[in-house]
Amino acid sequence: MTESPKPWLEHGLTREEHEQILELMGRQPNYLELALFGVMWSEHCGYKNSKAQLRKFPTDGPQVLQGPGENAGVVSLGDGLAAAFKMESHNHPSAIEPYQGAATGVGGIIRDIFAMGARPIASLNSLRFGDVADKRVKRLLNGVVAGIGGYGNCMGIPTVGGDLYFHPSYQGNPLVNAMCLGLMKADKIYKGQAAGEGNIVMLVGARTGRDGIKGASFASEELSDQDHDKRPNVQVGDPFMEKLLLEATLEILEADLVVGLQDLGAAGLTSSGAEMAGRAGSGLYLDLDLVPLREEGLLDWEIMLSESQERMLLVVEPAKVEAIRAVFDKWDLTAVAVGQVTSDGMFAVRRGERILAQVPAEFLTDRVPVYQRPQKEPAYFSQKKNADFSALLGGQNWGELLTKLMESPNLCSRRWVYEQYDHMVGLNTIIRPGGDAALLRLPGSRKGLALSSDCNSRYVHLNPRLGGAIAVAEAALNCAVVGAKPLALTNCLNFGNPENPEIYWQFVQATDGLAEAARALGTPVTGGNVSFYNEYDGQAIYPTPTIGMVGLIENVDDRITHFFKAPGHLIALVGRSLEELGASEAHYLLTGREEGEVPSLDLDLAARLNDFLVEAASKKLLSSAHDAAEGGLAVALAECCLPLALGADVVLEDSLSAAAAFFGESQSRAVISLVPENLEAIVSLLNSKNLPFSVLGKTTDHDLISLKHGEDVLQVPVNVLIKAWTEALPRAAAL
Predict the structure, then answer these.
(1) What are 79-138's pLDDT values in tens digits?
(2) Catalytic: which of 18, 90, 423, 461?
(3) CATH 3.30.465.10 fits 374-406+560-735, yes or no
(4) Domain residue spans in the chain?
């Protein structure tokens, strides 16, 4: 092999980083050692462009048993139970090979959960695509949805929720963010640590092949039209093998046979081995002669960087190796001793006694450079604040506009997606996809867990700080409207190239807003993922800090669903409506422009609203509750009417314009319904929380949604909305 005059380039390192490595090592690293540095110092593994900003997140709380830094975060659920959960991205692989990219994203996040000792019980996904009319986007959408369903369904883990949006900024670079949650005993948390000199390092699960090699580096690059030849960077998943790996791993954990364990995800053996040694302050070596291979002829660096799926790295006491091997033999999986824990702090790669690479583990994990990139407010930020809302304010056929909104790609029914997922396997799902949040019963308990994901990237684009805060508030409210107290969050921070000062400004502002909201709402960040370089031919995606929220309800019998239950119930709005048309879905639908001020957010009001909803649910005072978000109050009311084909007769205050009253997207609002005899108790509870409140009207058995605002009337038959809402996505997604 001819030595390159710039050996660092091949491994995604900069000249300055190469010089840092030379200084750390005191010598020129060989090819394999540079490859180790290349993946571990990539953004995907090292978080070098984001770590400085992530430190501002609140990560502690009485409910937090494990915060960031491990395979997944863990929160206490009481009664000796805990939940492990996390969200990660698989954006670039899904852009190249949508089925396998999405499937292996699901597989990877599932392994993160059972690596903590938790049995996975639910998955969610958050998806972003370009213009759904485009043939390539249709192919990506269909492939990603099929990949998520194919993997999760085979694993027997229900996919219970998520979110889906379309926008031109994702045309070449879709986002596929996968979230998983598992249950465990609160006192049996396992960590990815290589502790105990002389303990054995075992590689279990699938054999190692060439799939996914340099996937971590690939995820830290921008996409372009030239990337179709990067399919080898995309992993290939086998959910049936992962199911065996899950059961075998949980069996050895239950038998207390393991010191530490880690999923082999990005950068494969390199990241898992180095991170396990780094966390424990130890060293370890791996012997490549002992690694089971799927094919002959793999080079040393290929073995170390392979991202073949369905593999785990275990650290075990020597006396327990045979017991572990026996368990994996039973499940027809390989379990091979491939190395040993040392006390010298070195991460070493060998073939027998021949040392191929030797690097202090801390150089690969703790010495990753941390960058504070230059920031620059984009020119559009101030320009887009000035908006022309004449298309909305000039008068409309309001019923026709509502119908168009209900069939728009961002607001129509997602049933076409979630019907491809098994969301009932395990029989714990008691609020299914299609509402504000999923709700799962905890086995053997009256308690339940609410799960939601959220992010309005238009808001974040127009005001990153406020948009980031709104993403947290919306995800928390999604849990509260089903009666669950928001507990904690994970995130997947999807942005463009951080080396662009305008992109980095977006990132800093958005994470500031996220941190502020998480602190105000008492929902600490337990972990997550940063995905930079989401660009296609130099065009960045809209900033998308996706939030995954977990909430706890003490008694699942107190749960609330979003839809109206019967005619004659009172309809009310909790929260405050303002003259806010900026960044709205209605304005974008009419004009194709994204402009104006993002709706304001009162975090104190948001917290009080969440408290009210949880308490009202526990007292069984509500028939339904629904977040009023994208599309405004008219869309929220329609979403409440459609499931049981009920009508609504509503009168709105006329202090606002009709457009703002119908379609403004003021934050921290909930549409509730209740039987009339509960009104007095509801008003008393609302007053105790100092919350704005207005009775809007009643549900009806007429096939009509009627909203009146002064002289303006919005009327549309419910059956017309049902047809528009349910048929839009299957029609749009058809290949």
Answers:
(1) 999 999 999 999 999 999 999 999 999 999 999 999 999 999 999 999 999 999 999 999
(2) 90
(3) no
(4) 10-41+190-368, 53-76+104-182+413-559, 374-406+560-735
